[in-house]
Design goal:
Layout (H helix, E strand, L loop, with lengths): L1 H16 L31 H10 L4 H6 L3 E2 L2 E5 L2 E10 L5 E8 L7 E2 L5 E2 L11 E8 L12 H10 L6 E8 L2 E2 L4 E3 L5 E2 L2 E5 L2 E5 L13 E2 L8 E7 L7 E7 L14 E9 L13 E4 L5 E5 L3 E15 L7
Length: 327
């Protein structure tokens, strides 16, 4: 967003410097080489070897696991609030979201209707600004827009200046939308898989999985009025006999959100927990810790199952599956 604003301001300065009392040319905004016609063929990421390699190396997917699963991103199993849950793991992440621009008509905050233009991101895996969690901006097209393709943030800046679209409006919400290498599918159930959808990024078409209902609503669209993304915690356990902490059976502080609730985040700070010799069955965060307020708050004490624990500096993107057979 900052790059778009800077580019627009730069354009304004150029126009101001060239101003005359009587314009020598028609001052109606012109065209842009960055904005492509409606019938333009946009290359896929797979058509660019360098970009394909960059995404493959940085999308946080395990190449060996994908080869074993025939390209399917498989689910893990954990526990949340006493219930078994399924989840997808997308590696380490951070709290600064990346923007995603969704195009449509109406009012950005009250009556938005998306059109058939693909969403636009300004960063892909391997770019410094990339984050798989995206803050949502809505871009309203004007009556001058006739299906042009806006496939870069430079093109978006030009489209604003020319008058094809209005300034992007943040709806202060985020979604989890990891961009991944081409050729994957994702496991939704015992016999159910899904293919990715697409976005524009850096002038190419890239694959993305958007969780929890997509960019137009659903449980996956969570409010984020403060900018930085919220976090919860996830516990990896090991027994009193030692060994490694077990990431294959995580205990989530996060719970699956109910309709209308906006307290979910897929970002989890890792806690390493050493269990007591007499520890019982651990199926929820409350079996490990007491919190204030309960469930959602900070740790105030441990339960008898815990010998000791350490809050780490690692933040992982662990997306709970809200319902079987769905993203």
């Amino acid at each position: 967003m900052q790059r778009i604003i800077q580019r627009v301001l730069g354009a304004v300065l150029v126009v101001t410097a060239a101003c005359r009392l009587d314009p020598l040319v028609d001052d109606k905004p012109g065209a842009s080489a960055n904005i492509l016609p409606s019938d333009a063929k946009i290359p896929a990421v797979a058509d660019n070897p360098d970009l394909l390699t960059q995404i493959t190396l940085n999308d946080s997917l395990d190449t060996k696991a994908l080869m074993t699963s025939m390209g399917v991103i498989e689910r893990g199993t954990g526990f949340s609030d006493g219930n078994q849950v399924r989840f997808w793991a997308f590696g380490a992440s951070r709290r600064a979201p990346a923007p995603i621009y969704v195009f449509g008509t109406g009012d950005a905050l009250t009556s938005f209707q998306p059109n058939d233009h693909l969403p636009l991101v300004d960063a892909l895996p391997g770019d410094t600004e990339y984050n798989p969690i995206h803050t949502i901006y809505r871009v309203i097209v004007t009556d001058r827009y006739h299906g042009e393709k806006i496939t870069t943030t430079g093109a978006l800046a030009d489209a604003i200046q020319i008058g094809l679209v209005q300034e992007p409006v943040s709806i202060k919400s985020f979604i989890d939308g990891p961009i991944v290498r081409p050729g994957t599918m994702i496991e939704l159930g015992a016999t159910t898989k899904a293919s990715p959808t697409q976005v524009y990024g850096r002038g190419h078409i890239a694959d993305i999985y958007v969780f929890g209902g997509g960019l137009t609503g659903g449980l996956g669209m969570q409010l984020n009025p403060f900018g930085l993304l919220p976090t919860s915690q996830v516990s990896f356990l090991r027994t009193s006999t030692g060994g490694s902490y077990d990431p294959a059976r995580p205990i989530f502080q996060a719970t699956i959100p109910a309709p209308g609730k906006t307290a979910y985040t897929p970002l989890s700070i890792v806690i390493n927990v050493d269990l007591s010799p007499n520890a019982g069955t651990i199926n929820k965060d409350g079996d490990l810790f007491m919190r204030s307020p309960p469930i959602t708050g900070t740790i105030t004490a441990t339960q008898g199952n815990v010998a000791q624990f350490a809050v780490t500096a690692t933040t992982l993107l662990l997306q709970l599956q809200f319902a079987e057979d769905t993203l």
